[in-house]
Amino acid sequence: MKKISITVLLSCLLILSVKNVFAQQIEISGGLTQKVLLGQQKDVFNPAIGYELGLNHHVNDYRMAHSLNYGLNFGLFNLNRVINDEGYSSQYQQLFETKALFRYDYFINDHISLFSGGEAGFQFINLKSDQKVVISSQRATKVFTKAILAPQIGVNFELNPNLAIYYKLTYDLGYYIGDQPDWGGLTSKWNHLLTNSAGIRVKIRTGFY
């Protein structure tokens, strides 16, 4: 009986120590994003400005100078066609992204952390035009799908344990599944973009492991 009591006591102490080591938090992030096309499409479309929103599970081990994050990122962008010889262009692509995320943060000190990771998911593309004659109604309602793999690196500026400002540099490698937008000239199904993002991260503690 005494041995059982000691075992139970040691088990409770172990659980309590683990609770004090691992923190579980929900991380909400959002910011502005610029996407710049690379390769042969660089001369066809202007850089895109859009918004991204992330919802992640944040795990912090207080014994180590690192944390892990995984969850989902969403993005909404407009990609404008380059101005034509007449001095204007009414055509653009409307992009919606949904991607799974994994991120590893390494803390240099209490205020700065470096991170690396990646995203994988899909981008859904609608062709749009300010002039109905430029694009048919059938073409305007068609949704094109692109698979995306996006490794990333960046830095967090930790204002406090629950709030940070981030900068992120991402290389987006995309491949059109099925048809791809042409607008008069087919390009490769492969798509390369360089993405710059900046925004804020807010961590909300939900309990302990």
Automatic annotation (TrEMBL):
InterPro entries attached to this UniProt entry: OMP/PagP_B-barrel
Signal peptide: 1-23
Superkingdom field: Bacteria
Keywords in alphabetical order: Signal
Stated name of the protein: Outer membrane protein beta-barrel domain-containing protein
